[in-house]
Specification:
The strands form two sheets. Strands 1, 2, 3, 6, 7, 8, 9, 10, 11, 12, 13, 14, 15 and 16 form a 14-stranded mixed sheet that branches. Strands 4-5 form a two-stranded parallel ribbon. Strand 8 and strand 9 form a beta hairpin. It is about 30% helix and about 20% strand. The protein has 21 helices and 16 strands. The chain is of the alpha/beta class. Helix 2 crosses helix 19, helix 6 packs across helix 9 and helix 15 runs antiparallel to helix 16.
């Protein structure tokens, strides 16, 4: 039985984004944001070290926004929504001096109810998962049948990730989110029928968290057409107050010819309160009221009981790295022969254009935000954030082509689309600025220093993302790498183990493959120590990067 609710809705952001319009984000915070790039357990672990350093430097409660995509989304939501330990110094991993990082020290399991418990649970939890069961079955003969219901399959990844990342921090994943207790109480005052639902809110010092996902295509047009000129992915954002797309527009979706080649133009855009995201308007004429509210039937995650839109679904979508491939034609012939319906593994959410609730909701495939834009930086540019730091915890290293960076400047292979990824529309900065930041990064990398570069840059117009030209920001890019100064201070036994290609203690350090889901304790601890060191050892650089005003020397005297 569906639950009827009253939810706030926002058609456009011309007057500013809801968190600003409603004064949920303090003006005392710096107009700054930190982006945590996707990359599985590597990205999550690296982000944990960086968050601890930002907290120790006194920056975390001055920053306005945290943005996370894929593995980065679990990092920022684990930090923001944890229910187990509000004290950063106890929840986040301690940063030690390199000399202390013996193999014995790095072999110690993290304390319970701390952030680094999660990546160490992955192997234990994953082996019982439908998702990994799917991969085992995919290699068997053609008569193998997918042994689970479509509902179980659709949420297998979502539930697996929730068990790994949220269970250790006191979150079961089924909670609804709000910005603070005032916001939660406001929702309940409008919807007393939700009093049995649990709402969780970010810890008080947390910046405003934004999780990035991708709207792929309508389910009824499966499989979508993945060619360059017919791929029309758009961004979906999940935040404590609202979820959806910031701009209303018409998007034409194309089905692959393998299933008929149909096409359909659908109106998309607008925000709805996050607890009610995925809900369906009640009746054909359900307009937004003068107070900005709309009547909806609450989303039903298991197609049976009203659940609202829980936190685990937001990050489960943001990290569903195979979703765009499973919804395409790439694996249709291969896996349908095996009777394995890959598209059943992709989350599906009904969506309607907020500016026209009379339109029937369309069930949409939603998937990993990194399949469209893996940094989250465009969300900050849209909000006119002036100081932006991107923690690019990439698995490739700064010396290779990296589409996370290239796509924003319209250069390199990022201009081409490929099945599952679509970075072609992402240019928001001029091409010349790319060479400025690239040269700085390459110089630092060749000198074996921390690979960090800062430029001041103005935007170029991007109609697809609604970015206007001429907005100036200070962009700092932090690549994952191990500076020689840090390496040389490690105990000799640790240095030798890192260099030992036959040892699994620190295999592939620090560029653990994204698909390498199971990291050992020493790998996890050393990576968090590295990323913590890079930030905490350069306090003035990061204070300036986030816009902290420096006290003039004469004034200080």
């Amino acid at each position: 039985m569906s639950t009827a609710v009253k939810a706030k809705a926002w058609v456009s952001q011309e007057r500013g984004y809801p968190e600003v319009e409603l004064n949920y984000v303090s003006n005392k915070r710096l107009n700054s944001g930190a982006c945590f790039v996707g990359g599985g357990n590597r990205a999550f672990t690296a982000s944990a070290g960086q968050l601890r350093a930002l907290s120790d430097l006194g920056l975390i409660d001055q920053i306005k926004y945290l943005v996370g995509v894929s593995g980065g989304s679990y990092a920022i939501t684990s930090y923001a929504y944890r229910q187990c330990q509000p004290d950063d110094s106890k929840f986040l991993p301690v940063g030690n001096e390199p000399e202390k990082l013996t193999i014995s020290h790095l072999s110690q399991n993290p304390p319970e109810k701390t952030m680094l418990v999660a990546p160490q649970r992955a192997k234990e939890v994953a082996h019982a998962s439908i998702w990994f069961d799917f991969w085992r079955k995919a290699a068997l003969p053609a008569y193998v049948k997918f042994p689970h219901s479509s509902v179980e399959a659709e949420h297998s990844w979502v539930n697996l990730m929730s068990q790994i990342y949220y269970y250790p921090i006191g979150v079961n994943g089924n909670e609804l989110i709000a910005w603070n207790s005032t916001h939660a109480n406001d929702i309940l005052s409008r919807n007393p029928n939700l009093k049995t639902f649990k709402f969780i809110t970010p810890v008080p010092k947390s910046p405003y968290p934004i999780v990035g996902g991708t709207r792929v295509s309508p389910v009824h047009l499966w499989p979508y057409h993945s060619s360059e000129d017919r791929n029309t992915f758009t961004r979906v954002e999940f935040t404590p107050v609202y979820s959806g797309e910031p701009y209303s527009r018409s998007v034409t979706y194309y089905q692959d010819e393998i299933r008929g080649g149909a096409s359909e133009t659908i109106q998309v855009g607008g925000f709805i309160e996050s607890f009610a995201f995925g809900g369906k308007p009640i009746g054909k004429n359900s307009p937004i009221s003068d107070s900005g509210e709309i009547n909806l039937k609450l989303y039903e995650m298991n197609n049976q009981d009203p659940s609202g839109f829980p936190i685990k679904l937001m990050t489960g979508i943001s990290s569903n790295f195979m979703g765009t491939v499973f919804a395409s034609s790439q694996y249709v012939s291969r896996f349908e022969i095996l009777s394995l319906p890959t598209h059943e593994l992709v989350p599906k959410v009904p969506m309607f254009p907020i500016h026209d609730p009379s339109k029937d909701p369309v069930e949409m495939f939603l998937a990993d935000g990194g399949n469209l834009e893996n940094t989250g930086i465009i969300s900050l540019i849209q909000r006119k954030v002036e100081y932006i730091v991107v923690f690019d915890n990439t698995g490739t290293g700064p010396s290779t082509d990296n589409q996370n960076l290239q796509s924003l400047f319209g250069v390199g292979n990022a201009q081409k689309a490929e099945t599952g990824f679509y970075y072609k529309n992402n240019q928001i900065f001029p091409e010349e600025a790319f060479y400025r930041i690239r040269d700085q990064l390459n110089e630092k990398f060749l000198q074996q220093e921390a690979t960090i570069a800062t430029i001041t840059v103005k935007t170029v117009e991007n109609l697809w993302w609604g970015v206007k030209p001429g907005f100036e920001c200070r962009l700092t890019w932090v690549y994952l790498n191990a500076p020689s100064k840090w390496i040389n201070r490690l105990p000799v036994e640790t240095q030798n183990a890192i260099n030992d290609k036959d040892s699994d203690l620190f295999k592939d350090f620090p560029y653990y493959p994204t698909q390498e889901f199971f990291l050992n304790t020493t790998q996890i601890n050393l990576l968090a120590e590295l990323t913590n060191y890079v930030v905490r050892s350069q306090p003035e650089l990061f204070k300036k990067a986030f816009g902290v005003k420096q006290t003039p020397i004469k004034a200080a005297l």
